[in-house]
Amino acid sequence: MNTWSGTWVAERLGVELAGDERLRGMLGLALRRNPKRAHLLVSNLLGKHVPQAPSVVYGHGVELGRRVRELLGDAAAAQAVVLGYAETATGLGHSVADGLGTAPYLHSTRRPVAGVATAGGFEESHSHATSHLLLPEDPSLLAGDGPLVLVDDEFSTGNTVLNTVRDLHARYPRERYVVVALVDMRSAADAGRLEEFAREIGARIDLVTVASGTVRLPDGVLEKGQALVAQFETAAAPSGPSTQSPARLEGEPVTGDSRGAGRTADPGARETVRPAPTGPQSPGTVTRVGLRWPTRLPDGGRHGFTPTHRAQLDAALPAMADRIATALPEDAHRVLILGFEELMYAPLRLAAELERTTTAEVRYSTTTRSPVLAVDDPGYAIRTRLVFPAHDDPADGPGERYAYNVAGAGFDAVVAVVDSAADTPALHAPDGLLARLAEHTPHVLLAVVPSYVPAAPAGAQDAPERPVTMLPEPLRGPAFSSYAPEEVGWLLQDLSDVTLEAPTEEREEAIQSGGAHYAESLPVEYQPSEQYQQLFHNALDASAARLAHAVGVVTEIVLAERPHSRLRPSRGISLPRPVLVSLARAGTPVGILMRRWAQHRHGLDLPHYAVSIVRGRGIDANALRWLAAHHDPSDVVFVDGWTGKGAIARELSQAVEEFEKVHGVSGFDPEIAVLADPGSCVRTYGTREDYLIPSACLNSTVSGLISRTVLRADLVGPDDYHGAKYYRELADSDLSVAFLDAVSARFDEVTEAACAEAKDLLAADRTPTWAGWAAVERISEEYGIHDVNLVKPGVGETTRVLLRRVPWKVLARAGAGSDLDHVRLLAEQRGVPVEEVPDLPYTCVGLIHPRYTRGATGADGTAVTR
């Protein structure tokens, strides 16, 4: 027989739960640090404090909505609007709206949103955080005369509903209200007050609940409860001096009995017990999962959620849940989807879809602002709590936040679902939510839903946009990079003082296991041998004219298709165009060479910047915001060194489309101009031959001493540029300017031929065939790799594999000559076989080890050869 999870409080305070026989299965009791009310009714059906099956949580809400529809009738239900209460009932209100089927939904919020007018507000007298705001995107949402359905988790005194109706009825009077709650716990006197209020305003107020009853409180219960809280929090405090509050130490239960830790509270649910941790543990891994949340779909009901939005979400849910399921470890049998404060509905729907489509035991709950005492006793509703700092920059300032009944609950994986406003450094900090979760489960996944920002109302074109002054000006040499300051401005942040490098083998294992993204760390910079450096100089001497020719061709095409200057009407000045924007870092030397050609051949002083793009995560949106604030987006030409299979071309196209939808800024053309396009992935190129571009031979020492770009959540906040390091210590080995000068010196001798070829190409069909992508897919299957991301075609990409990854083998076109001298040398140094292949569409292809662990290499770090 299960112990009721209100027994502990009932015995110590004399609190009684009377009424419907279902109440004890629906509610437990706990104590909270609140000067207004000592006890807390802890719902087992809400998915807030107690992890519950999402089908149970969602099912109760939908069923309540259906009952409201039956009460109102179809005609009145079609005119209804549903209003839920923050934070606890935001998901329940959404579910009720789903049950009604045709009703738009809005929930109150404690998060002010700049630029969104307040349509009302009210107080929740017993809450720890009282002020509620109503911020509908459509001001008319609450203005109709149809029924207003108000949804809360419990109906305890009726004060919150009275405050809401009083405020809204004065603005938007209507004839009918329906109050919906899981439980009605009012006293007889409180019930009478609601009826009297309804007569006073001349409206009908109905009540729909699952169960009803009362809480009987003895005299002095508030003082007794506060004393108990103080007693147990003091017991949890560390002995001796400490800078931490007692609550900081409450990842573990407050008392010692862990025999029941992690039991699910619903009587019909399967029980799983895993003792809460009692000592140091290895932290779990944290992995980000891209949901691909539908563009412009609200993340919740803060600004309104319509039936059209609901249909859009329904259509997208299977694919999003599948992405989560794919990211979960195969042995994850018990999984928690953890929502975030007011963000309850989106995580609930994801959890319900995951429960429906997988064999895992899925549970759902959310974090909360509400401070509740944790006591590890089977008769107490809050067994454990995790404490972490607020991570969404709340309007009322910093403070503690909580996740209850997660520690010790036996979850093989926890999927934290937050909105993008909460994806901040505080979330990823050592004491942040993700770190706290990782202490108690081996796998933590992070899924971020874009925070919905309402569009500016009609006629508000002159309203201030999100300020761009928060974005710093571009970094320039010599403070950042060895390039001259006029050559390039880096829209990056300087992470030179941060240790980001990891051994190649460790990085490869983490990347392929899903434990890390390649952009979260840097490879140790390759220090070339004297023999290798000589190969670079030989290659540069042999190819400088060929490179200069390709630079001339691609620059002439760009200038022909983008007029050199134009008048900006709003300012009455002529501005140079195009604006070259290199994809850091391989594109940066090419962008500088194109800028030099435009200056040499046409006397143009083109702006040039470098921005970060990360495969799988898109382009730096803040860099695009800065560019849009300082230049016309239609003037921007993206520049890269070369194409392989075209992954970055696809990434850029998707990223620009997403940026336009999210930020409302249009005009950026995702077409990339490249020096070499052996994969036939773009239409603006200098050549489609696959030959050695010497800048691919080296890393930072041919790229202004700048590292690859870094995107890691604890270093790059939502308003920060992506990061990179400036390796000042490698100045003695720097060949960046020497490379540029060697190519620029050949401009005069190739000008005539380059201009003639550019003219021919402008008249030709340059439509990409994507032959390279098809070739990569074929190679991936033929060699049993089954992952195109591990196949790196072309001389440049093969070189990168040998310098930065764990190579498996190199495929070389039969008869390839000196263009592969440096590849053969690197392969020899790393013990990688070079296999000649007839009719290879590229000069060479690098294959990353497809099933890499550190055990796949010898003790000396060389790659497997068989």
What gross morphology would you assign?
A: elongated
Number of strands: 34
Uncertain segments are 125-130, 238-281, 458-470, 565-576, 853-866
What's the alpha carbon Rg, rounded to whole Å?
A: 31 Å
Helix content: 25-40%
Mean pLDDT: 82
The number of helical segments is 22
Biggest sheet descriptor:
7 strands, mixed
The proportion of residues in beta strands is 15-25%
Structural class per helix/strand content? alpha/beta
Distance between the termini: 60 Å
Domain TRSP: 299-435
GO molecular function, one term: glycosyltransferase activity
Pfam families: PELOTA_1, PRTase_2, StiP, TRSP
Domain Cysteine protease StiP N-terminal: 481-743
Structural features, described:
With 866 residues, the protein is α/β, with parallel strands linked by helices. It has 22 helices and 34 strands. Strands 18, 24, 25, 26, 27, 28 and 29 form a seven-stranded mixed β-sheet that branches. The chain has a six-stranded mixed β-sheet with strand order 1-10-9-8-4-5, sandwiched between helices. The radius of gyration is 31 Å and the shape is elongated. It starts with 6 loop residues before the first helix and ends in an 18-residue tail after the last strand. Mean pLDDT is 82; it is low at 125-130, 238-281, 458-470, 565-576 and 853-866.
Q: What is the gist of this entry?
A:
Residues 770-849 form the PELOTA RNA-binding domain. The protein has 866 residues and is an alpha/beta fold.
Task: Throw out a few tags for this protein.
single chain, alpha/beta, seven-stranded mixed sheet, 32% helix, 866 residues, 34 strands
